Amino acid sequence: xxxxxxxxxxxxxxxxxxxxxxxxxxxxxxxxxxxxxxxxxxxxxxxxxxxxxxxxxxxxxxxxxxxxxxxxxxxxxxxxxxxxxxxxxxxxxxxxxxxxxxxxxxxxxxxxxxxxxxxxxxxxxxxxxxxxxxxxxxxxxxxxxxxxxxxxxxxxxxxxxxxxxxxxxxxxxxxxxxxxxxxxxxxxxxxxxxxxxxxxxxxxxxxxxxxxxxxxxxxxxxxxxxxxxxxxxxxxxxxxxxxxxxxxxxxxxxxxxxxxxxxxxxxxxxxxxxxxxxxxxxxxxxxxxxxxxxxxxxxxxxxxxxxxxxxxxxxxxxxxxxxxxxxxxxxxxxxxxxxxxxxxxxxxxxxxxxxxxxxxxxxxxxxxxxxxxxxxxxxxxxxxxxxxxxxxxxxxxxxxxxxxxxxxxxxxxxxxxxxxxxxxxxxxxxxxxxxxxxxxxxxxxxxxxxxxxxxxxxxxxxxxxxxxxxxxxxxxxxxxxxxxxxxxxxxxxxxxxxxxxxxxxxxxxxxxxxxxxxxxxxxxxxxxxxxxxxxxxxxxxxxxxxxxxxxxxxxxxxxxxxxxxxxxxxxxxxxxx
Length: 577
Hints:
The protein has helices spanning about 1-10, 20-30, 35-50, 75-85, 125-140, 155-165, 175-180, 180-185, 185-205, 205-220, 225-235, 240-245, 255-265, 275-300, 310-320, 325-335, 385, 390-400, 440-460, 460-485, 520-530, 550-575, and strands at about 55-60, 65-70, 85-90, 100-110, 115-120, 150, 170, 340-345, 350-355, 365-370, 375-380. By secondary structure, it is of the alpha+beta class. The strands form 2 sheets. The protein has a 7-stranded mixed beta sheet, with helices on both faces. It starts with a helix and ends with a helix.
């Protein structure tokens, strides 16, 4: 109402009351009931007319009810071309009135921010549905399948990924697995051996080293009969850190990025939203995320990071890398001065160097191997293979060899400021056109700002007002003539043809795996049982501050002392008498 008041120049000029707006909203809600799926279809058709880079697919059952839906706009498809090497996939619930499962497909951009590659509404979480989604998504994307996809341990997802993405390395979320240690192990074993399990997971540099360490910890803890641990050992390829497998993962080890994104988007949507309402609200949240990316792009172009040294390599990379990536690289470059490089072995094919800290007896010795024929350098820590940033051990070797500029093979293009510079071709449309993410709304805003500025300058004088009025009238007449020519097929204009009856029925109510009462883990159960008394300060007691024995005993003692004082006062009074 405040916006209407400001727009019209006063509350008396609005022309309606707050109750009128409420009634209008109620009537509109009744009008759209039963037409939600059709309205969503019309919305997608309109978006496609605005920008042919927009793509969508709607599935329906034999009765004409909407079952599954996938969509991706031009910006999402372009982002996949630039940053689609690693994908995070997870589903979320309670986003619409039908409880359809919302499934965004996410990644990380060159600023290490979350970026969207497409999203879907799903009617269930079966392997067949996930397979349909991944195939439709790949069909819409301008590049091939990703190198890696990170999910939780859903068996249906695992099966679908094996069919639809056979050449993509599927990795389980590390957080979900390590969090289950407290549930699957006894409290004593968890407390005593968790650090050894974690050390085995994160510090294994080869699959053989991991296998040996895992078996050793299980036997040492006498947990060889734990089926969960044994099964985890058997499926190690899906969750051992990526640097063991030499696969790029953009330095991500869990699906936490997806869960944070779900939390962000739930600020804009709720389980009361219709499908169309959710999509429009989701678009607002997505616009904010993309604005943050544009803001970082602007800072990268117009600002310069702070340098710590006079290394030519540091200055060069500050111009190539984005701020976020440069500061990660700068930290590795700064740390390399603390390391000593010594040649330990050499043959006709390679040279092996041992890299260790100059100070610090407990530091781990890393092995840097240099191939003589190609001059390729690799380190046993596998940071470059995992994160795409050269580690301090390789940089220490470059410093010893007096290499001032970082070789091109160690500069990953997706981390640079120019990562989004290349054009993306749209192979879905005829003619292989370029995907353009300039929508119709941006054209409207540009014209609106120009017209608003013109009107503000014209209304100052009567002559200016008359001139602009004549100009707009002639412009409107010319546009009408252009529209008539377009309808005769002799011109071009944007035409939105919307068919009201699409034969789509609203989806049925969905019951997903994540709905209902949430199962609590061992930590939560233990935390609930271990209540803390704010009176005595003890934890795990059955009492609280109201019936704390310590407070009660203290109160009774104080009462007895007060009674004794009263008796003493009575005796004194008797003596005085």
